[in-house]
Write a structure and sequence with these properties.
Keywords: Metal-binding, Zinc, Zinc-finger. One of its GO terms (molecular function) is chromatin binding. It comes from Bathycoccus prasinos. With 252 residues, the chain is an alpha+beta fold. It has five helices and 16 strands. The longest helix is centred in the C-terminal third of the chain and has 11 residues. The radius of gyration is 24 Å and the shape is elongated. The N terminus is likely disordered.
């Protein structure tokens, strides 16, 4: 039966992401009296526009998965602002990749990191989805040149509604405090005989009577057999407990 279970306590030490400092941003401003402390809502790098609150993938060391972060704000060097003013009458000029990279090195981006399960102190568990990440309170200033692309981090409910997912589709159901290795919420509903929290990557079947969900391997069958039997019988599936106590027909 479904119940409540406390997440296993994390180790005493915390594994934090390695990040780099620096950054930049670019935005047209009509007020010439504004300074680098002004609020900048977006930057344009090449053909892409990045806004405050966008979630992005960021460059990681070779062999590692890209970092994931939410943009909190931008800061632009004063000389970059003057350059943008000088270029205002030449907006059709196409920047080279080198020019974009050099400009991005002058843009500072304040970000909050998303942690992959294996980057947290307690590590990856069986119920963590392949595309699961944790929102965190860990923030840094980084260079805009480390941004790779926009991605999407959904709630678990919205992620389940997606018709397809790709390398830019993620979901988050936990918030992670990096300094203390704490999770919010610290309790999570569990399912199946294995008492495991829901993993959207793993197929589950619902009992038509008790409405509990089960992994096929936990009830001694397979998804293929379940699909075949349910299709042939045009009926609901019932777990062994409901078959025993309520005399529900067992589909074989």
């Amino acid at each position: 039966m479904a119940g409540e279970n406390v997440l296993p306590p994390p180790p005493s030490t915390s594994t934090l992401l390695n990040t780099t400092g620096g950054v930049e941003n670019n935005n047209n401003n009509n007020n010439t009296n504004k300074t680098s402390k002004d609020v900048i809502k977006y930057i344009e790098l090449g053909d892409e526009t990045y806004n405050v609150h966008d979630v992005v993938s960021m460059k990681a060391p070779e062999g590692e998965k890209p970092y994931i972060a939410k943009i909190l704000r931008f800061d632009v060097h004063a000389d970059e602002k003057e350059k943008k003013k000088a270029d205002k009458n030449n907006e059709d000029k196409k920047e080279t990749d080198e020019e974009i990279e050099n400009r991005a090195d002058k843009i500072n981006v304040h970000v909050s990191w998303y942690y992959r399960p294996e980057e947290s102190a307690s590590g990856r568990k069986a119920f963590h989805g392949e595309h699961e990440v944790f929102a965190s309170d860990h923030t840094d200033w980084v260079k805009a040149s480390t941004i790779e692309s926009k991605i999407h981090v959904y709630t678990l409910a919205d992620y389940q509604e997606l018709q397809s997912v790709n390398e830019k589709s993620f979901f988050s159901r936990f918030a992670y405090k990096a300094a203390t290795s704490e999770f919010k919420p610290d309790h999570v509903q569990v399912f199946c005989k294995c008492s495991m929290p829901y993993n959207p990557d793993l197929f589950m079947v619902e009992c038509g009577e008790c409405k509990e969900w089960f992994h096929p391997e936990c009830i001694g069958t397979s998804r293929e057999d379940l699909d075949k039997n349910l299709k042939n019988s045009d009926s609901e599936w019932f777990c062994d407990e409901c078959v025993r106590t309520h005399k529900r027909p067992k589909i074989t």
